[in-house]
Amino acid sequence: MLSYQHAYHAGNFADVHKHLTLYTVKDYLLRKKSAITYIDTHAGRGLYPLASKETLKLQEHREGIEPLWKARKTLSNPLLCEWLSQVTLVQPDGISLSCYPGSPWWLSQGLRSQDALRLCELHPGEHAELFEQALPPEAVRVHGDGLKELEARVPVATPRLCVLIDPSFERKTEYQEVADSALYALAKVRHAVLMIWYPLLPSGAHHTLLDALSASGVRKIWQSELQLREPGGERHGMYASGMLVVNPPWGLDERMRGVMKEVTTLLGGESRFSTRWLVEE
Ligand code: SAM
């Protein structure tokens, strides 16, 4: 079953949370010259026009990127300003917000000749769209199962590995499958930086993933959650976005708390951000 299409959700609060974390992690990794292999296990289309019929249906970007974009000239957090100036780069006129960049774009920014990038997408239509995106020649697009690809690729030839696992969680079993593949990759590359996104739903299904990682013996698992609304309110579905970073770069917690303080003010309402160690060092 592959019915999920990210275009319906592009630029929502979870994308903001995920891509700000990804940007901050990468910013730190790029301070050293040694080569990095990036693997994006669930890449999506790569770029999302906000006027597409899919995105217009739910308009989730109005509770995500849009309020940040509108305030971009008056912001005080330098990281948020930097991140939004990156978002400007994909706007055809450089002024109005008409596109939102997905993880393939964020990962391909700042890619150096020594680095490698593999973008995996299983959905044939989404993969075809990804294939059309203008990305650097080092970006290899793989049509196939991202978790299998991750397992087949480790250990990697470069000294460093950075992975984004961002599934659609259409099947309940995906929470356990993600944990199994992440643990397999970490057994092969102990120092890999692994980012895993998960939704917080009223069912609490994400606990399968958290419990499996907590019990695994892997250390240094940083967790952050961006809540948009209280669970159990009138609106069903995802009420918060979660991010795990295994082997987080130094200073990630402080930088993310700083940036999210301003983001939650802009998102308003019941939005709140929290961080903790799921498993400490
Ligand atoms: N990472 C993207 C971003 O941040 O812009 C969004 C990805 S979206 C949440 C999940 C994507 O995974 C969808 O495009 C879906 O078609 C794809 N997908 C679902 N199952 C997959 C699998 N087993 N392997 C690779 N891609 C898969």
UniProtKB/TrEMBL annotation:
Q: Which Gene3D superfamilies match?
A: Vaccinia Virus protein VP39
Q: Does RNA-binding show up as a keyword for this record?
A: yes
InterPro entries, sorted: RlmJ, SAM-dependent_MTases_sf
Pfam families per the record?
RsmJ
Provide the residue positions that the database annotates as binding S-adenosyl-L-methionine. Answer: H19, H42, S103, E121, D145, G146, D166
Keywords attached to this Swiss-Prot or TrEMBL record, sorted alphabetically, are: Methyltransferase, RNA-binding, rRNA processing, S-adenosyl-L-methionine, Transferase
Give the EC number(s) listed in the UniProt record: 2.1.1.266
User: Where is the site labelled Interaction with substrate rRNA?
Assistant: Y4
Q: Where is the active site?
A: D166 (proton acceptor)
Known catalytic reactions = adenosine(2030) in 23S rRNA + S-adenosyl-L-methionine = N(6)-methyladenosine(2030) in 23S rRNA + S-adenosyl-L-homocysteine + H(+)
Q: What does this protein do?
A: Specifically methylates the adenine in position 2030 of 23S rRNA.
What protein family is recorded?
A: Belongs to the RlmJ family.
User: What assembly does the database describe for this protein?
Assistant: Monomer.
What is the protein's name according to its record? Ribosomal RNA large subunit methyltransferase J
Per the UniProt record, the source organism is Vreelandella malpeensis
| Organismal lineage | Bacteria, Pseudomonadati, Pseudomonadota, Gammaproteobacteria, Oceanospirillales
